[in-house]
Design brief:
The complex is a heterodimer of chains A (about 400) and B (about 400).
Chain A lengths: L6 H25 L1 H21 L8 E7 L4 H12 L3 E7 L2 H9 L5 E5 L3 H6 L4 E8 L3 H26 L5 H8 L4 E6 L6 H32 L15 H30 L8 H23 L7 H6 L2 H8 L11 H7 L4 H12 L9 H38 L1
Parallel strand pairs in A: 1-2, 1-3
Antiparallel strand pairs in A: 3-4
Helix pairs in contact in A: 1-9, 2-8, 2-9, 8-9, 8-10, 8-14, 9-10, 9-15, 10-14, 10-15, 14-15
Chain B lengths: L1 H21 L1 H21 L8 E7 L4 H12 L3 E7 L2 H9 L5 E5 L3 H7 L5 E6 L3 H29 L4 H8 L2 E8 L6 H31 L3 H7 L4 H30 L8 H25 L3 H18 L11 H6 L4 H14 L8 H9 L3 H15 L5
The chains are: A alpha/beta (about 400), B alpha/beta (about 400).
Subcellular location (chain A): Cell membrane
Keywords (chain A): Cell membrane, Membrane, Transmembrane, Transmembrane helix
Membrane topology (chain A): Multi-pass membrane protein
């Protein structure tokens, strides 16, 4: 039996080649500043930038203008209390609507609270009164701030008025007629309803996938450009087996992305004190299949990149779509079935869903088991696809080599 | 002289069209990607608001009253009760599994206590991890709680011989009547797509502009291109970007047709202000694209810059989280994005129907971006003549 056909020899050579390819790919990465941008600069800087943008979490002091035609103690008290809430600032009190509208036009304010002439009269007469609130809809967060603050003040002031109006009734008795069913609202997880806490964890996970796709795609494109046969696999005896090529290369990416992941999911959330109630071990276990899936997904796609710039032109815009398809901002139940199916092609979809639930809602692996399994399946499928692509490329290269020998 | 310039521009534009025809990637970036995005976002948000979001009802009462409450909650358009249970633990787990976004808690003996005046307390929980879902469900569950109180109040009040008006004044003396200007339906498609889609367009224009100039450097055809323009960078650039201006303007107007025509989104000031804003967005983005490849004449660096800047636009433009809520540095930086000014024009013109007077500075900003290529002209020309592509 020839030496080359013995199993032990094949395995030993395979492992040696894997490490050779690993080293070779590592060199490729560090020699290419374009790839370095995507493997290091973007994962380093982008999370910082996004956390910085959304760092204030909620809108404070949204500017409101008051039109007070009632000009009474009660309307002034109402205005004072709205102004005292942390979310709203009353910048002016006007006497007519025209002036207030002009302030909206000039972007000096984003909402108008209007007290009609009969406001105080109604209340004193024990009649229900209506206070119109007009909101500029350029930002829903302004709208929310105005609405919640005005409602809160109206309820508080209303309660006090009722007490004042029916002083005869005993405290308890009176409350029963006015407040027969009290209620309380609790936000569990991300309890301050912060914008950074809501969006940044999803972006962090998406950045991992997108930078891998761009970086590995760029490496693939470069390899093809450099290669005289436009082949993904270089002419070298080390690159003869599919598995060793796929393993060798993915080893490079995994080692780099272990570092990236530590930065992205452990350091950045601490820096910006984003909520992180998940168990670190669970996060680690969950990220493992996510990384595998992303890497093999990226390697599969890189097989189709014919030049080094192509990945940016083809994949950057998908980030916007992938963020929405993941169901973090648009609830997944409301996503049309067709797009839900499309979403399953990308590791980011289960990756983001699972991660935010572990990270922000404190889920355990049991509660994200669907996403966890999906990621392992994706990892498996894309591993096979990556192997097929490399197998095809290696065959193609060999054919050319044989052809050259004959000539 | 003038005639010759026009001729050169025409010849360069024809050459550019041939270049575009040879590379499918142009076709993808200019037509396929924008189409995918418009189909995706408009179909995703076609209902305006996400409907039938799942919640759990923890019903400790189990009376006809509490079942009635649960049924009414389910009847809300945005809410669907998918789980009724007596275990809060089970509901919380469903929340962590992502199966529900909210929990409505009805305490024991709710029905009896409410009628007897013992003030049973309703509680509702939302999952802040999903901000949009949580705030919409908050609205429904709060309305439901208020209504529950009102109906009990009415019953006892009527029994005591009060009129309905008297009871309502007693239950809720001051009512806030909200008017969402321009978007009374709180339609998320109106809210998001008016900025998301032009944002995609801006991103693709950045990329294509950098691609069209960067590839001249990469494949060493830059000198030939400049010679066709008699070594005038202005002439060469105009000829080069012209075909893209035409294509992207058509795409932008089709976006306008999809938003304001097909979907009938609010268009208070008529077509002209928005169509001109879309056109200005196209040429301003092209100018920024030229600036990018001028500053970073390495093809891939230019493209990376375009990608990162283009993606950042979606956040810094402030249609989701307002710019006024950001750090002052970022507020200043947001001016560097054509999309920011386009967004402000949209708010004034399409959404609120304000007079042109209030948005002319934003139009001027968009025009102002056209200065950028001139600032970087010298460096770009040097790069085109002497820069060697290193892979």
């Amino acid at each position: 039996m020839k030496k080359e056909h013995r199993l032990r020899y094949i395995i030993k050579q395979g492992i040696l080649d894997t490490f050779y390819i690993w080293k070779d790919e590592l060199k490729n990465v560090f020699r290419d500043e374009g790839v370095l941008i995507f493997f290091f600069l973007v994962p380093f800087a982008y999370p910082l930038l996004y956390s910085f943008i959304y760092n204030n979490e909620v809108v404070h002091e949204a500017k409101m203008v008051v039109v007070d035609q009632s000009d009474s103690y009660l309307s002034r008290e109402f205005t004072r209390r709205v102004n005292a809430t942390p979310d709203v600032e009353v910048i002016a009190v006007c006497t007519d609507m025209e002036e207030a509208k002009r302030m909206l036009d000039e972007k000096k304010a984003y909402g108008i609270l209007y007290f009609p002439t009969e406001f105080s009269k109604d209340l004193h007469r024990g009649k229900q009164t209506t206070v119109p609130l007009y909101c500029d809809m350029s930002s829903l967060l302004f709208y929310k701030a105005f609405l919640l603050s005005a409602t809160e003040v109206s309820l508080d002031l209303g309660k006090e008025l009722r007490r004042h109006n029916s002083p005869g009734a005993s405290d308890k008795q009176e409350q029963i007629t006015v407040d027969p069913v009290p209620y309380e609202s609790v936000t569990i997880f991300n309890s301050q309803n912060g914008f950074a806490s809501f969006l940044v964890p999803a972006i962090l996970i998406l950045v991992i996938q997108q930078t891998l796709v761009l970086g590995i795609g760029m490496l693939g494109g470069t390899a093809r450009e450099k290669n005289s046969l436009h082949n993904l696999v270089p002419v070298s005896p080390h690159f003869n087996g599919t598995l060793r090529v796929v393993f060798g290369k993915s080893l490079t990416y995994i080692l780099i992305y272990v570092v990236v992941c530590i930065w992205v999911v452990a350091v950045v959330p601490k820096l910006f004190s984003l909520p992180q109630v998940g168990d670190p071990m669970t996060i680690l276990l969950f990220l493992l299949p996510y990384l595998f899936a992303c890497i093999f997904f990226a390697m599969t796609l890189s097989g189709f990149m014919t030049n080094r710039e192509a990945p940016m032109l083809l994949f950057v815009f998908t980030s916007v779509i992938l963020l929405f398809i993941s169901g973090v901002s648009w609830p997944k139940e409301a996503i049309p079935p067709f797009w839900q199916v499309v979403g399953y092609a990308f590791p980011s979809t289960p990756g983001i869903q699972g991660f935010i639930r572990i990270n922000t809602s404190g889920a355990t692996l049991n509660e994200v088991v669907h996403e966890y399994h999906t990621l392992w399946i994706q990892a498996g499928v894309y591993f096979v696809l990556a192997c097929i692509i490399y197998r095809f490329q290696i065959r193609r290269r060999k054919k050319f080599e044989d052809f050259n020998v004959i000539m | 002289m003038g005639k010759q310039c026009l001729h050169s521009i025409w010849m360069i534009a024809r050459r550019e069209i041939q270049r575009i025809g040879k590379k499918p990637v142009y076709f993808f970036c200019m037509l396929v990607a924008p189409t995918i995005c418009v189909v995706f976002f408009l179909s995703l948000m076609k209902d305006g608001l996400p409907t039938d979001m799942p919640i759990a009802v923890v019903d400790m009462d189990g009376s006809s009253n509490s079942r009635n409450l649960s049924r009414q909650l389910d009847a809300f358009e945005q809410t669907e009760v998918v789980l009724t249970t007596v275990s809060f633990e089970e509901a919380r787990q469903a929340m962590q599994e992502g199966k529900v976004y909210g929990i409505f808690y009805i305490p024991k003996d709710f029905g009896v206590d409410a009628v007897a005046g013992r003030q049973p307390k309703l509680s509702f929980y939302t999952n802040g991890t999903y901000l949009i879902g949580a705030s919409l469900l908050f609205r429904d569950m709060k309305t439901m709680s208020v209504l529950a109180g009102a109906s009990v109040g009415l019953q006892t009040g009527l029994a005591h011989g009060y009129t309905e008006d008297q009871i309502m004044a007693q239950l809720q003396p001051i009512v806030i009547d909200t008017h969402a200007l321009g978007n009374p339906w709180l339609n998320y498609s109106v809210y998001l797509n008016n900025t998301l889609l032009p944002g995609v367009l801006q991103l693709m224009i950045f990329l294509v502009t950098v691609l069209s100039i960067g590839s001249e450097i990469k494949y060493s055809t830059a000198r030939q291109w400049l010679q066709m323009g008699n070594n005038s960078l202005t002439v060469s650039l105009i000829g080069k970007v012209l075909p893209y201006t035409v294509v992207f303007t058509v795409v932008a107007f089709l976006y306008g047709a999809a938003l304001y025509g097909f979907n009938s989104f609010p268009l208070s000031s008529g077509w002209l202000p928005m169509l001109s804003a879309l056109f200005l967005l196209v040429i301003a983005s092209q100018a920024v694209g030229i600036f990018m490849i001028g500053v970073l004449p390495t093809f891939r660096m230019g493209l990376s810059f375009a990608s990162l800047f283009g993606m950042l636009a979606f956040s810094i433009v402030g249609f989701s989280f307002p710019v006024l809520g950001m750090d002052p540095t970022l507020q200043a930086l947001s001016n560097m994005f054509p999309l920011r000014h386009y967004f402000l024009i949209y708010v004034d013109q399409a959404l609120n129907g304000r007079a042109f007077f209030y948005s002319w500075t934003e139009y001027a900003w968009l025009l102002g971006f056209l200065i950028l290529p001139f600032l970087i002209g010298k460096q770009l020309k040097k790069a085109l003549l002497y820069f060697k592509y290193i892979p």
